[in-house]
């Protein structure tokens, strides 16, 4: 798999060739965030840093999308939806529900967790794993259901 920066450069050039202004604007915004991180942190970001930046951008866009839909501003909601689609192209695919359930079940067994009071320990361990494919929202629901069943 090519790294995110290489893919971003290629996609930016392609958007320029295609004269796709909305896509180009989003790609430049992503590039700008990567460069801002590099300047702020005074270091070259690694792949996990770039993924974290993309996930933060995605979360911001989804929050904005909800607000625009509530305010019945479909014109702005469409712009946010398009940006979300572009950002998601650069993120690794999330684990399926079955894969996530299996991973969490193994984690619970490994840590010998026994009830809902151990949910914090399970979530802390999942977060420290640093796997960008884990959707923490879904993971939280699965951990809760598995620990409630014990």
Looking at the overall shape, the CATH architecture of the largest domain is Orthogonal Bundle
Summing up helix and strand content along with how strands pair, one would put the structural category as mainly alpha
Give the DSSP E fraction (strand runs of 2 or more residues).
under 5%
Helix content: over 70%
Q: State the CATH superfamily name of the largest domain.
A: Uncharacterised protein YqeY/AIM41, N-terminal domain
Indicate the radius of gyration in whole angstroms.
19 Å
Mean pLDDT: 90
Shape: globular
Helix-strand topology string: HHHHHHH
Number of domains: 2
- Unreliable runs, pLDDT <50, ≥5 residues? none
What report would you give on this structure?
The protein has two domains: 4-90, Uncharacterised protein YqeY/AIM41, N-terminal domain (Hypothetical Protein Yqey, Chain: A, domain1, Orthogonal Bundle), CATH 1.10.1510.10; 97-148, no CATH class. 77% of the residues lie in helices and 0% in strands. The chain has helices at 4-18, 21-41, 47-70, 74-90, 97-111, 119-129, 136-148. Helix 2 packs across helix 4 (74-90) and helix 3 (47-70) packs antiparallel against helix 4. The model has no long low-confidence stretch (mean pLDDT 90).
